[in-house]
Design brief:
With 466 residues, this protein is mainly alpha-helical. The chain has helices spanning 61-76, 83-91, 96-106, 111-129, 139-151, 156-174, 205-214, 220-229, 233-236, 278-292, 297-306, 330-346, 358-371, 375-382, 387-394, 409-413, 423-426, 460-465; strands at 7-8, 38-45, 51-57, 244-245, 250-253, 256-258, 261-263, 272-275, 439-440, 450-451. The strands form four sheets. Strands 1-2-3 form a three-stranded antiparallel beta sheet, with helices on one face. Strand 2 and strand 3 (51-57) form a beta hairpin.
């Protein structure tokens, strides 16, 4: 059997006499395509004698030979060497831009998810790949697409979001009965993108108490929602007065806020009625007293001169609102959290510089695990879908500084203290060094608090003297 030969695009098959040789490949003469990605070209003629070709990358010579052999054998045996070509034309395979519109219209997920997918697909995928038929784009082209996004300065975390949206769309296309069988698979799965994940900040009670002390008083209760109830930032911003069942010492988590609107929670496991400790009940009562207090003459004068409209009554049921009386946005809470972090660090409490509101939820998970609460109970309290998420994603060994906690374990979490906790974790709030009662507050939004004479918030000065 004669050796199968394929066309080498890098070198001339019929060089002219005297042409310079290839420095990389002795004995050969370079062509104008020398160095291109697609080096090997399979060639064959169909039943009508027309020459057809297909190119392969430089490291796929064996695949090119096999493909050329199979196509020539099909012609010799009377078979169609490209059985899907006519089928693709007759089915009118959509372009990526056309299928994006179909996908966003038919994909049955939360409206916020569809909105995010649409922004990433229309904003980044369609401008670069939108004109290509969805069945013809290969993995190498998707790799170049993600590399181009990185070259444009896109953060790795956002490239992962674009990949997630694109992968979801291609998976849906594979299930399409009209052309899904023509696709070579989900070409995005398996593409590895570099990751720059943020290192989780390990908070302590000293950090949490300091954050609650130095944040804007209007947002203090949100710190405790994160550290005691494990709420995500926009779940905390969505808590309503009717959710705070203070007489029963229960709290219902039923919605979250996105762009000011009430939307469903992240998963079905996120819906729960959570026990609430007496510490949070008292903190909520103090918060609502400030929240409903009449504005001072100075504050009213400031609102008039600033041209602010009256506070909208539609948001009166929310526990926490902005100074304008509107729902709290994610960036507003993030800015307030960062200011509190900076103030705490300036006053000697070294809150990790990378800490975010999400770390309060991780802190609660770690405290419950370190306290000896059964893992399944921690999973239910944290509203995780799987036990692995509780133990692997958030659980880490933590030496809990119970002496800096603002109350006892039971007062904080509303459940009986497990056996084996240190004495400091069992001391009730009345016997502890008073934290927030020793602070005189200026209730104006954004005003700093002044410390009254008394023991330090963390008790470090008294320990040094002793």
């Amino acid at each position: 059997m004669a050796k199968e030969e394929i066309y080498d695009r890098w070198h001339k098959s019929r060089p002219k006499k005297g042409e310079p040789g290839c420095p990389e490949h002795p004995g050969l003469v370079p062509s104008a395509d020398h160095g291109c990605e697609k080096r090997w070209q399979a060639r064959w003629r169909d039943h009508d004698g027309r020459q057809l070709t297909k190119t392969f990358p430089k490291n796929k010579k064996t695949a090119a030979i096999a493909y050329q052999r199979s196509q020539r054998a099909a012609v010799e045996e009377g078979r169609d060497p490209l059985p899907n070509r006519r089928q693709r034309r007759s089915l009118q395979v959509p372009t990526i831009a056309e299928y994006v519109a179909t996908f966003l219209e038919e994909h049955d997920v939360r409206s916020s998810t569809i909105e995010g997918y649409g922004f990433r697909l229309r904003g980044y995928v369609v401008p670069r790949l939108g004109t290509r038929p969805i069945t013809e784009v290969r993995r190498s082209e998707y790799k170049k697409f993600f590399a181009a996004l990185r070259a444009d300065g896109m953060m790795n975390s956002y490239r992962h979001q674009v990949k997630k949206a694109l992968s979801s769309m291609l998976s849906a296309a594979l299930d399409d009965p009209n052309f899904g069988h023509l696709m070579p698979g989900n070409q995005v799965i398996g593409i590895k993108l570099s990751s720059e994940r943020r290192q989780k900040a390990r908070l302590t009670w000293e950090h949490v108490v300091a954050l609650a002390e130095y944040i804007d008083p209007a947002f203090e209760i949100l710190i405790w929602y994160g550290a005691l109830q494990g709420l995500r930032s926009m779940e905390a911003a969505a808590v309503r007065k009717t959710d705070m069942k203070c007489r029963l010492e229960k709290m219902e988590v039923s919605e979250q806020r996105q762009r000011g609107k009430a939307v469903p929670l992240k998963t079905a496991h996120s819906y729960l009625v959570i026990p609430m400790g007496s510490f949070l009940v008292e903190t909520y009562a103090a918060h609502m007293e400030r929240r409903t207090a009449p504005l001072s003459a100075r504050a009213l004068r400031h609102r008039r001169t600033s041209g602010w409209t009256p506070r909208p009554e539609e948001y009166d049921q929310l526990v926490t609102v902005t100074r304008r009386g509107t729902p709290l946005a994610r960036n507003t809470l993030s800015e307030a959290f960062n200011r509190a972090k900076e103030r705490a660090r300036a006053n000697g409490v070294m809150v990790p510089a990378t800490a975010t509101f999400r770390d309060l939820r991780d802190f609660m998970d770690a405290v419950l695990i370190a306290a000896g609460i059964p893992p399944r109970s921690v999973q239910a309290r944290m509203r995780h879908g799987t036990l692995a998420e509780t133990l692997e994603t958030y659980g880490f060994a933590l030496e809990v500084d119970w002496e800096n906690a603002p109350a006892s374990f039971e007062e904080l979490y509303g459940i009986p203290a497990p056996p084996g906790l240190p004495e400091a974790a069992l001391a009730p709030r009345s016997r502890r060094k008073r934290h927030h009662a020793d602070l005189t507050r200026d209730h104006r939004p954004g005003a700093r608090r002044k410390r009254a004479p008394g023991p330090s918030v963390t008790g470090r000065k008294s320990r040094r003297k002793s």
